[in-house]
Design brief:
By secondary structure, this protein is an alpha/beta fold. It has 15 helices and 14 strands. The structure holds adenosine monophosphate. Adenosine monophosphate (AMP) binds next to helix 10 and helix 12.
């Protein structure tokens, strides 16, 4: 069965068509500037040439119509009729406490997703628009919602509660939710396969290190803690996000800089992290790695602070699980940078880790980068959130 995976933002829409049986990508693409002048669709059949078409898209329904036309195009299309798309899997950012797993979309499910809009005001409404557009154009096709937060719903109370008045949890559901769930789920399952062990027999720490970054602790097949919180601002130092800070800094800076809470929060989201620490040099880790090698002071302090924060979380999660069998690196930085993996692992002598330098220099493959005598395994696992969504969707509709 072919599954169409949709990841819908407020003015963009990414899509992939995946054969659920072989797990092979059939085609993928992106609609940009939906509802804005200069909108365009990029479409690429697997193994074929990428085509970029500038064309008006007044709304998401227009965008989905163009996606379906591209997939069914006589010359470059990959399917002949709509019914060759067996189901649609929608990425939904926030499922709150309503969703601990993926679910087939019904009117009730849409209402329950709407109830979570407050928790992700930029993302959930856009995700819902994508669902509405697909339902309009493909009314007979089953649809599944796959949530970024669902994988982390197994966290115990002591991990998800904040030390604030309990009534805020009761009234507003203020608690840790965690994000990147499809990635943490995919990578932890792949890790068990790579290790040749049962998923439920392992203690794993997954480090999703990309522009957004988060760590999760997965014990016996269940997420028991994760670094992102009510929103994706908490946790690691990220490309432009601060990660953990003393909350009193917000008021302190408002007073010193004569700025509003909204302005400071915008800075914490968009101008902080690696970008902020490097004095505005770059949010791209490649640029900073180059500068680090040249010994630039701003790059040294930034990369050191980044790696230290990851190592600190690994220590905390090792304690939370009373041990760890394998640490998994994934996403743009985690998959590609042997430098940062080595820098993080340098803190982990207490886990008896010895890296295999040659394996650590490889890219784009699932690989164990430790020597055979290493007491704890360290794995690199390229993430595949779309495949994870396609698997979840297929499991519910086949
Ligand atoms: P993602 O959000 O997963 O797409 O990851 C994006 C981040 O990965 C960017 O900050 C990139 O700089 C970083 N990245 C991608 N490739 C490399 C690489 N070869 N070396 C270091 N960082 C990389």
């Amino acid at each position: 069965m072919n599954i169409l995976v949709i990841n819908c933002g407020s003015s963009s829409l990414k899509f992939q068509l995946i054969d659920a049986g072989t797990e092979k990508l059939i085609a993928k693409g992106l609609c940009e500037r939906i509802g804005i002048d200069g909108s365009q669709i990029t479409y690429a059949p697997a193994g074929g040439e990428k085509q970029v078409t500038i064309t008006p898209m007044k709304d998401h329904t227009d965008a989905i119509r163009l996606v379906l036309n591209s997939l069914m195009d006589e010359k470059t299309g990959v399917v002949k009729k709509l019914d060759e798309i067996g189901a649609v899997g929608h990425r939904i950012v926030h499922g709150g406490e309503n969703f601990a797993s993926s679910t087939v979309i019904t009117d009730e499910v849409i209402k329950a997703i709407e109830e979570c809009n407050d928790l992700a005001p930029l993302h959930n409404p856009a995700n819902l628009i994508g669902i509405a557009a697909c339902r309009e154009l493909m009314p007979e096709t089953p649809m599944v919602a796959v949530f970024d937060t669902a994988f982390h719903q197994t966290m115990p109370e002591e991990a998800y509660l904040y030390g604030i008045p309990y009534e805020y949890y009761e009234k507003y559901k203020v608690r840790r939710y965690g994000f990147h769930g499809t990635s943490h789920s995919y990578v932890s399952h792949q890790a068990a396969k790579l290790l040749g062990k049962g998923y439920e027999d392992l203690k794993l720490i997954v480090c999703h290190l990309g522009n957004g970054a988060s760590v999760s602790a997965v014990k016996k097949g269940k997420c028991v803690d994760t670094s992102m919180g009510l929103t994706p601002l908490e946790g690691l130092i990220m490309g432009t996000r601060s990660g953990d800070i003393d909350p009193a800094i917000v008021e302190f800076l408002c007073n010193k800089e004569q700025k509003s809470v909204g302005e400071i929060l915008s800075e914490l989201n968009k101008k902080s992290g690696v970008l902020g620490l490097s004095g505005g040099f770059s949010s791209d880790f490649r640029d900073l790695e180059d500068e680090f090698q040249k010994g630039s002071e701003f790059a040294v302090r930034t990369m050191n602070a980044f790696a230290y924060r990851v190592a600190k979380y690994i220590g905390a999660y090792t304690a939370a699980m009373n041990g760890v069998d394998a640490i998994c690196f994934t996403a743009g930085l985690g998959e590609n940078s042997g430098f940062i993996r080595e820098k993080i692992c340098a803190y982990l002598g207490y886990l008896g880790i010895t890296l295999d330098a040659e394996a650590n220099s490889k890219r784009g493959v699932e690989i164990d980068i430790t020597t055979p005598d290493s007491r704890t395994r360290v794995l690199v696992i390229p993430t595949n959130e779309e495949l994870s969504i396609a698997r979840e969707t297929y499991a519910l509709v086949k």
